[in-house]
Amino acid sequence: METAEEQLLLEKIRKKDGAAMRRLFDGCAPLLMGLVSRYIPDKDDAQDVLQTSFISIFDNIDRFVYQGPGSLQAWMSRITTNACISWLRKRKRLKFAPLSDDLIDESSLEEPEYDALSQDVIFEAIRSLPDGYRTVLNLYVFEDLSHKEIAALLGITEGTSASQLHRAKAMLSKKLKMNAQ
After folding, report:
1. Which of 12, 25, 82, 86 makes an SS bond possible with 17, Cβ 3.0 to 4.6 Å?
2. Cβ neighbours of residue 53 closer than 8 Å, sequence gap 6 or more
């Protein structure tokens, strides 16, 4: 969407124009559903979280400050990510494996042949990770947050974030190796 077009759409949404809200929803729902489904594998739950996200987006649109192309999408993605984390928390699904002295077999971290795997296979392997692992992996890899930021967001220590990421990568690597064979 062009900058002027995006700003005009925002003006209309701020005036509660239903057609403009529908246009934003129709244009962004597929992208945001992809984000939600990385955190919440169940389709019905993911649709509920997407709907909750759009309610929050429309309720808070007056707080959005346009900063150029992509800023609206980034803002909406942050709201959606926060809605996912809130949903996981409310259902007590964010469980993190305790830190321990047992080390993950480093050979399990060898990267599989990704060329042989489809995006769908990789996506499903990520979605099959335990909630805590999957959440930290998503925040670190896709949202580009640091362990310090993840720790603050999830109410865990930086060490727990790093440990969960390490374990998530090991488990993901193992799953992908099995799919590559």
Report:
1. 12
2. 32, 36, 76, 79, 80, 83
Give tens-digit pLDDT for 98-157: 655 444 554 445 555 556 678 888 889 999 999 999 999 999 999 999 999 999 999 999
Rounded to whole angstroms, the Cα distance separating 9 from 4 reads 9
Cα 106 from Cα 68, distance rounded (Å): 43
pLDDT digits 0-9 by tens, 62-73: 999 989 888 999
Amino acid (one-letter) located at 5? E
Specify the DSSP class assigned to residue 49. H
Return phi, psi of residue 165, to 5°.
-65, -45
The identity of residue 146, as a single letter, is: S
Residue 116 in tokens: 């042989």
| DSSP assigned state of 22 | H
Alpha-helix runs per DSSP H in 65-118? 71-90
Task: Give me 33's structure tokens.
Answer: 């559903």
Which secondary structure element, helix H or strand E, spans residue 19, and what is its range?
helix 18-39
Whole-prediction pTM value? Answer: 0.82
Nearest by Cα to 135 from 63, 56, 77, 81: 81
